[in-house]
Amino acid sequence: MNQLPPVEVLFLWPLIVHLMLLFLIWFFYDLRKRGVEKKRVEGKIYRCSACNLVYVDNHDLPGTDCPRCGHYNEAVRR
Ligand SMILES: [Zn+2]
User: Fold this and answer.
1) Distance from the alpha carbon of residue 71 to the mean position of ligand 1, in angstroms
2) Per-residue pLDDT of the chain (78 residues; tens, 9 = 90+)
3) How far is the CA of 14 from the centre of ligand 1 (A)?
């Protein structure tokens, strides 16, 4: 005679599979978020007051020369 599957198979397996899926998605998005945050910390943003060029310099200086016209500019933020 055929037996019905136990309660563990009917209830626990779908639960475990869904939890694993949820953790995988969480892990994937957390890795992506870390990559974006790492990129964002690099450098300071400058806007040239002479030619309006916006550029990023990753040296920790209060100001740099514009790569296009050579005008000295101070960091916009950070
Ligand atoms: Zn410039």
Assistant:
1) 5
2) 567 678 778 888 899 999 999 999 999 999 988 877 766 667 889 999 999 999 988 887 888 999 999 999 998 875
3) 61
